[in-house]
Amino acid sequence: MGARFNHGSAKLTAKYTPGTATPAGTIVVQGGLVGVADHDIAANETDSIVVSGAVYVFDKAAGGSTAIAAGAPVYVDESAQLGTGDDDSGSNKQAGIAESAAGDSDTTVRVILGQK
Length: 116
Prior knowledge:
Elements: E1 3-7, E2 12-16, E3 27-30, E4 33-36, E5 47-52, E6 55-59, E7 73-77, E8 82-84, E9 93-98, E10 108-113
């Protein structure tokens, strides 16, 4: 699973129609818009994803040079379903900012969605 809800009560959503079933916790990228499916979404059914107003815990790779500072941009490696501090020359889209620091050895990062 790529993301888990942490807290927030003013979730803002965007319409989303997946081509295949999308499980809860999936990080979704639509052009430059990044959101999280906070519930299962059936294939070819229009529903919504959370794009702002909440903090989610994203999975993150651990290892050298993977730390993300508090307040720094958090990007999404969509295929790996991971949060990262690397925009990969624009291939990874920004999901928000880190609510707190995540060190090289951490395997998660707390992301304030929609903040840039």
